[in-house]
Amino acid sequence: MTNQKEIQEKNLEDLDDICDECREKDESVSQNLIMTGFKICKSCRISKTIFPI
Question: What stretches of 1-53 show up as alpha helix (H) in DSSP?
Answer without folding.
Answer: 4-14, 28-36, 42-50
